[in-house]
Amino acid sequence: MTTPLSIIIVETDRTRAQLIVDSLKDAGAFDISVISDPTGLARQIQARNPDVVLIDIENPSRDTMEELALASGPLDRPVAMFVDRSDEGLSSAAIEAGVSAYIVDGLQSQRVKPIIDAAIARFRMFQRMRTELAETKKALEERKVIDRAKGMMMRARGISEDEAYALLRKTAMDQGKRVADVAQALVTAAGLLS
Amino acid sequence: MSLASVSIGYIPLVDAAPLIVAQEMGFASEEGLSLDLRRAPSWSSVRDMLAFGQVDAAHMLSPVPVATALGLGGAGAKFSAISVLSMNGNVIGVSSELAARLRGVGHDFGFSDAFKAGRALIEAKTERLRIGVPFPFSMHAELLYYWLSALGLPAPQSVDIRTVPPPLMAAAIEAGEIDAFCVGEPWGSQAVDNGVGELLLPCSAIWSAAPEKVLAVRSDWVEHESSLTGRLIRSLWRAGRWLGNPDSRTLASELLSRPEYLNLPSEILDHALTGNLVISPAGAQRHVEGFVEFFHGAATFPWRSQAEWIGAQLAARTGLDRDAARKASRAVFRSDLYRQALASTSADLPGASSKLEGALEVPTPVSSPSGRLILGRNQFFDGRIFEPLKD
Fold first, then answer.
1. By C-alpha distance, which of B160, B166, B205 is closest to B183?
2. Per-domain residue ranges for chain A?
3. Fewer CB atoms inside 10 A, N or C side of chain B?
4. Which of A193, A180, A179, A190 is nearest to A153 (CA)?
5. Exposure of A175 by Cβ count < 10 A (0-12 exposed, 13-18 middle, 19+ buried)?
6. A67–B136 CB contact, under 8 Å
7. Exposed, middle or buried, A128 (CB in 10 Å: 0-12/13-18/19+)?
8. B301-346, pLDDT tens digit by residue?
9. Strand B90-95 vs strand B79-88: parallel, antiparallel, or unpaired?
10. Cβ B135–A63 below 8 Å, yes or no?
11. pTM for this structure?
12. Which of residues 62-81 of A touch B (CB under 8 A)?
């Protein structure tokens, strides 16, 4: 029986870190720890000497990891980015999902694959949540602008809310634009003229 | 005509200006291009986005494609630098505490003499210096190694050069994690603005003509997309020419300051674009002529000798075979593609693709088709001259 691989997760958000830990536990027996404070990241990692490091691609501290790829003293274990050695499909899937994995040189890829697979699945979920949040925010913003545009038209032309919306929609269709864009143009123009 | 979309990864820095200007001022659309500019969180992610084809091109630290060619870091994809984007533009700064010690040994913060500043720094330090740089493969790191080694402080052996992401540099100085830093603008000005550090020297005082950022693409992309490559080089050259005109500065800093780009007040971006830097929280100012250069003196010409200098430095500190490294490096800067792309324009290009680095004490005319090309001063602070291999 080989010793379980040690994994470090670099993540400042505790909830997210816990979710990643949970998915890794489902994928096998590993020795997992979390670094939540990125100061002196390279030293913290060197001190713990892990087999695998997982870090969000959006995390600017990722650049610090590159230093470890150069540690080449006789006792240092060079850390390579996963993409360096193993099959390319997996590494580009990881990059697309938004996770970068650094593994110690010479580790067999079949031992690492379950870890990366689990991390990819988890980070894809994070990404979906991020996109959904951004979309919801945008939709809310657009609703606000459309409401303001409707209000202006109602006052200026003495029409009902439904009529105002119908007019916005017709203009948008005629010009091949989105209703939200026409509304925004109206609000901007009104701002300039008042 | 519908525009061809080219996706480009970039880091929000003042020297991303040519990309932003090419898109916003219409230089890209003149060439039938629409630039899809994607802001990236770190240099390693820009490099990986390019390696895995998530973007077509990338704003890159000039040593990154060279390091990749030498097998240092990265995923193994080969990159070509098809244009330099800017020369110089970095600053070296110190913590308030170290600044006080520098004054203690009589340093005047003249902000121009790399000998004086370096000797004072070595004299003022009480223990091993810890200096933050944005990335292990960067002009910042190379110039620090060059400077300190030449002054008798062998680097990297006797200093700690640490990678600190620029947005965290001010925090690292404040927390006492590092004693000094070397970064691109606006991060140096930001540290002064936050009152945590003072600026000691512009990196141009170490090498007056250092290629800072390049536009990199995958080498196989160049083979398949020769038309896009040419159009990209031309639109960036025109953007650089526009940026080289002092009248453009106000508009340039307005464009850069927008929330979708750098998202910072335009006043702080003005420092770099005008070369009027505020070097201390007390408000002392210094002017640096050509602090960051986007155009004059063929600033964006990708000289083979520049790549070779970078390769020679990297080889020396990582123990690679120097001759092999120099040969592999020079092939990364594609002066051939740059020349080809600009042949149809009014650009006055140098006759040679390689030059002695560090051999111009004053701006000097060089051979070019129109005979009007003047290269700017190109000097290392210690007067050394770097001779490239023969073509």
1. B166
2. 6-132, 136-193
3. N
4. A190
5. exposed
6. yes
7. exposed
8. 999 999 999 999 999 988 889 999 999 999 999 999 999 999 989 8
9. unpaired
10. yes
11. 0.85
12. 62-67, 69-70, 72, 81
Taking CA–CA distances from A96, the nearest residue in chain B reads: B54
Average the pLDDT over each of A33-42, B50-59, B101-110, B277-286 and give the range with the smallest value.
Answer: A33-42
Distance CA B13, CA B24 (A): 16
Among A60, A63, A83, the residue with its CB nearest the CB of B75 is A83
CA distances for B75 relative to B49, B56, B151, angstroms: 10, 16, 35
Q: Which CATH class is domain A136-193?
A: mainly alpha
**Residues A69, B42: C-beta atoms closer than 8 Å:** no
Q: Does B285 touch chain A (CB under 8 A)?
A: no
pLDDT tens for residues B8-20? 999 999 999 999 9
Do residues A8 and A54 touch, judged by C-beta distance below 8 A?
yes
Considering only CB atoms, A60 lies closest to which of B72, B165, B318, namely B165
- From B344's Cα to the closest Cα of chain A, the distance in A is 38
pLDDT at B183 over 70: yes
Query: In the beta sheet, which residues pair with residue B160?
Result: B130
Contact call for A59 and B163, based on CB within 8 A: no
For helices A179-193 and A109-157, the axis angle rounded to 10 degrees is 50
Which residue from B minimizes the CA distance to A72? Answer: B318
Return d(Cα B290, Cα B375) in angstroms, integer.
Answer: 13
* Contact list, B77 vs chain A (CB under 8 Å): none
Q: What is the DSSP code string of B161-172? A: EEE--GGGHHHH
Answer whether B244 touches A (CB < 8 Å).
Answer: no
Indicate the pLDDT class of residue A42, thresholds 50, 70 and 90. confident
CA–CA separation, B122 and B128 (whole Å): 10
- Which residues of chain A make contact with B318, given a CB cutoff of 8 A? 70, 72
Contact of B160 with chain A, judged by CB distance below 8 Å, is answered with no
Residue B9 touches partner A, C-beta closer than 8 Å: no
Tokens 């580790």 correspond to A107
Domains, in order of start, for chain B:
4-86+211-262+294-351 (3.40.190.10), 90-209+274-289 (3.40.190.10)
Residue A189 has a CB neighbour count (10 Å cut-off) of 11
Q: Does any CB of chain B come closer than 8 Å to the CB of residue A87?
A: no
CATH of domain A6-132: 3.40.190
Judge whether residue A84 has pLDDT over 80.
no
Mean pLDDT, range A154-174, rounded to an integer: 94
DSSP per-residue string spanning B314-331 = HHHHHT--HHHHHHHHHT
CA A18, A24, A28: angle at the middle one, nearest 5? 145
Cβ <8 Å between A67 and B49: no
ipTM: 0.76
